[in-house]
């Protein structure tokens, strides 16, 4: 876990013309705020009323712009989120003090946007700056209204209706909301569209303190998942940023709320009171229990309040004298929050699929290294793969022959074979025990010594020997061999016991039992009627055949996934990497299959060429060593004197063997070199095929991508199979121009002349689309009402 750190608390003062300069003063370091109240003279001469308060905070933001607020409060929290640290930014304060303006801002003006849209922009900018990572962004928007949970993004067309109400669930990974929709956003504009959609669904009301008062607590969560593109490490980091806009506390005497607004204010004040109780408990190190479950707000923020999270609080206050009591209450909350400590740590997770691939790669390398050690130790080719049915049957046969004495010893090959030998010993032992027991059951009735009802029944049935004694009461050593009951004289053995011993020993010899029976406490008594003999177990091969037949009857899981309804065409085209994966699974599946097959053949040829090259290098090294040994023999022969016979030099046997070995090595070298030339030609040809398939795959993808996401939907019918235009036949610019109207040209012109510059394009596009959507809904509702009339 990471080191503990305190919560950062900031105060933002709402600008006003009637600022109480005599009562509210800021420190020189801009980190303290002093409150002074005049004494109430109506209390008399003895007046112990407190008149001065001083609060130490991380910074006081007075007359601060939205840019300065974001740079001071949220920028570090958002940047650390992409490194795997959770973050929470919470706005708290009196109603009308500017919490929603600080968090969301004015959506009509780009410069006045708040922390939330700026955080989204920063996340996507940092994604562009990290091309070595594949980063996925998802968002959700939760509303807590009158202690009930609501999904502000449930109105999206692809979100189905929820049957069960949303609940807060805890698991080892943390707290999450069951039933809350989480939306994938690949572009900044999509994230803004979701934000504006949620904002339009929020519940607001009007009272004397605020014309547009938020009547609910809202939590906008950004989920980030980052994976490395360059490293094959199975680890990846996840994080989430909670942006919390709390409803404002209000005094009912000042707000003059009535009816529904009064009920909402009661729920708001109650939940904020529980939030303050949780903060007080977190700040007290002696407290063991933290009351998170008192309300939905504290329960949903359990991870953020004192957990694995970078926590920041923005307290919004008034600067007017009339609101000084509420300002003091908000500042007390901020000072208590500074006592709370959190323990942020990087959220690392492991990709199971990538982990399996890495382990398979490591296993292959270890097998290669083991093969090298075997060759250096002059061991024959050893197979380290899992044993098949034939090999297991052979080991079972060896074990049986070893127990019978026809095989003196079992050769040890590897550890897997040793384990299987022991396993087959257990199998043979179990089979012999069953055979002996089945033999006994055919001749005798076996009764558990603790089954008194069965023993009584046997006595009543008259199943006794000639002396009137029960046969087979166990003596603690496996099957009992006739321990007499208390009524008989000690030392007297019955004839039936001797007969039973002889039968038992003879049956054991016939069955070839080489081990004692299983330690079950059983009584044995002679039966007048024999039991039906149980069939003996077959050999190992028969067992394997039965297992294979059983496995064949099991239902196979369907490889084809269930058909799902495709979501409607997105407002903005998806990222090309995401669309490319969809293309390979749908329209380009056949080309992708051919591409993969050619690539696998290419990799196999490359592997064979690499292995051949290694063999050639090994042969070359052996040739050099043989030449050195041969030259050494020649030099020794020259020093000792050469012998000639009929003009030919006589050499010894060792030098002759070296000459033969050198000739064989050179012959082998030439053959391997010829194979390498052939493989290189095949590799070059396969590479050409792979390049052709890749080019065709990318070309088909570009055509599919443009026609699927840029061609107007009403013109796509002509591009479908059987249409008048084949894919790729007509340039995209001409197809798009067919559906272009004045509104599209106005949109292109708007992007070049927006007041906020290029960075504001996504913001305004999402805003315009949201307004168009609501205007369309209003028009449709008006038409329906007119039709009813």
From TrEMBL:
Classification via SMART domains: KISc
UniProt key word RNA-binding: no
Keywords: ATP-binding, Cell projection, Cilium, Coiled coil, Cytoplasm, Cytoskeleton, Flagellum, Microtubule, Motor protein, Nucleotide-binding, Phosphoprotein
Composition skew (Basic and acidic residues), residue ranges: 536-551
Coiled-coil intervals: 349-376, 602-629
Localization (cell): Cytoplasm, Cytoskeleton, Flagellum axoneme
Keyword tRNA processing assigned: no
Protein family (similarity comment): Belongs to the TRAFAC class myosin-kinesin ATPase superfamily. Kinesin family.
General function of this protein: Essential for normal male fertility and for progressive motility of spermatozoa.
Protein name as annotated: Kinesin-like protein
Organism: Moschus moschiferus
């Amino acid at each position: 876990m990471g080191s503990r750190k305190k919560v950062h608390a900031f105060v933002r003062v709402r600008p006003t013309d009637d600022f109480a300069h005599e009562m509210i003063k800021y420190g020189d370091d801009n980190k303290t705020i002093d409150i002074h109240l005049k004494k109430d003279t109506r209390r008399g001469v003895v007046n112990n009323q407190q008149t001065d308060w001083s609060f130490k905070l991380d910074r006081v933001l007075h007359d601060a712009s939205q840019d300065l607020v974001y740079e001071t409060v949220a920028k570090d929290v958002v940047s650390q989120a992409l490194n795997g640290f959770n973050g929470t930014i919470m706005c708290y304060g009196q109603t009308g003090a500017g919490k929603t303006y600080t968090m969301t801002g004015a959506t009509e003006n780009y410069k006045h946007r708040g922390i939330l849209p700026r955080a989204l922009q920063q996340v996507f900018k940092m994604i562009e700056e990290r091309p070595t990572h594949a980063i996925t962004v998802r968002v959700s928007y939760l509303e807590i209204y009158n202690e009930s949970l609501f999904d502000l993004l449930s109105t999206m067309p692809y979100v189905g209706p929820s049957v069960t109400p949303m609940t807060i669930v805890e698991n080892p990974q943390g707290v999450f909301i069951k039933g809350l929709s989480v939306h994938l956003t690949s572009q900044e504009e999509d994230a803004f569209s979701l934000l504006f959609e949620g904002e339009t669904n929020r519940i607001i009301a009007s009272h004397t303190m605020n014309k547009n008062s938020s009547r609910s607590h809202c939590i906008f969560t950004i989920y980030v998942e980052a994976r490395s593109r360059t490293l094959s490490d199975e680890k990846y980091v996840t994080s989430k940023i909670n942006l919390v806009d709390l409803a404002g506390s209000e005094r009912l005497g000042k707000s003059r709320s009535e009816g529904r607004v009064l009920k909402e204010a009661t729920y708001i004040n109650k939940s904020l009171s529980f939030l303050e109780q949780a903060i007080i408990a977190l700040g007290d190190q002696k407290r063991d229990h933290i009351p998170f479950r008192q309300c939905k707000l504290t329960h949903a923020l359990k991870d953020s309040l004192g957990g694995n999270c970078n926590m920041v609080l923005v307290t919004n206050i008034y600067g007017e004298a009339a609101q000084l009591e509420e300002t003091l209450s908000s500042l007390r909350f901020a000072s208590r929050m500074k006592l709370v400590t959190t323990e942020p740590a990087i959220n690392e997770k492991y990709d199971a699929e990538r982990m399996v691939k890495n382990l398979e790669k490591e296993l292959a390398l270890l097998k290669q290294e083991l093969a090298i050690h075997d060759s250096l130790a002059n061991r024959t080719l050893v197979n380290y793969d899992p044993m098949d049915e034939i090999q297991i049957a052979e080991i079972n046969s060896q074990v049986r022959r070893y127990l019978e004495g026809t095989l003196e010893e079992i050769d040890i090959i590897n550890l897997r074979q040793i384990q299987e030998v022991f396993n087959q010993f257990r199998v043979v032992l179990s089979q012999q025990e069953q055979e002996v027991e089945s033999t006994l059951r055919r001749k005798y009735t076996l009764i558990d010594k603790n089954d008194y009802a069965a023993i009584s029944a046997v006595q009543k049935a008259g199943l006794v020997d000639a002396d009137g004694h029960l046969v087979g009461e166990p003596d603690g050593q496996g099957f009992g061999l006739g321990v007499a009951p208390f009524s008989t004289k000690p030392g007297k053995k019955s004839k039936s016991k001797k007969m039973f011993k002889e039968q038992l020993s003879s049956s054991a010899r016939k069955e070839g039992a080489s081990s004692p029976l299983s330690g079950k406490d059983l009584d044995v008594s002679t039966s007048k009627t024999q039991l039906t003999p149980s069939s003996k177990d077959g050999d190992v091969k028969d067992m394997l055949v039965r297992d294979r037949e059983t496995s064949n009857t099991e239902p196979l899981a369907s490889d084809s996934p269930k058909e799902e309804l495709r979501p409607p065409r997105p407002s903005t085209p998806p990222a090309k990497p995401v669309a490319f994966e969809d293309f390979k699974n749908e329209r380009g599946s056949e080309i992708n299959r051919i591409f993969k097959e050619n690539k696998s053949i290419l990799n196999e040829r490359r592997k064979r060429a690499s292995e051949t090259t290694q063999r050639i290098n090994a042969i070359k090294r052996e040739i050099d060593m043989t030449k050195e040994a041969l030259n050494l023999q020649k030099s020794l022969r020259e020093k000792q004197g050469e012998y000639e016979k009929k003009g030919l030099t006589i050499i010894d046997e060792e030098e002759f063997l070296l000459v033969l070995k050198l000739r064989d090595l050179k012959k082998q070298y030439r053959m391997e070199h010829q194979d390498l030339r052939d493989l290189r030609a095949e590799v070059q040809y396969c590479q050409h095929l792979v390049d052709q398939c890749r080019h065709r795959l990318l070309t088909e993808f570009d055509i599919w991508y443009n026609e699927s996401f840029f061609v107007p939907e009403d013109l796509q019918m002509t591009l479908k199979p059987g249409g008048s235009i084949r894919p790729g036949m007509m340039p995209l610019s001409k197809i798009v121009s067919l559906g272009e109207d004045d509104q599209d040209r106005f949109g292109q012109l708007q992007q070049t002349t927006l007041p906020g510059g290029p960075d504001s394009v996504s913001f305004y596009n999402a805003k315009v689309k949201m307004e168009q959507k609501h205007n369309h809904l209003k028009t449709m509702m008006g038409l329906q009402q007119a039709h009813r009339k």
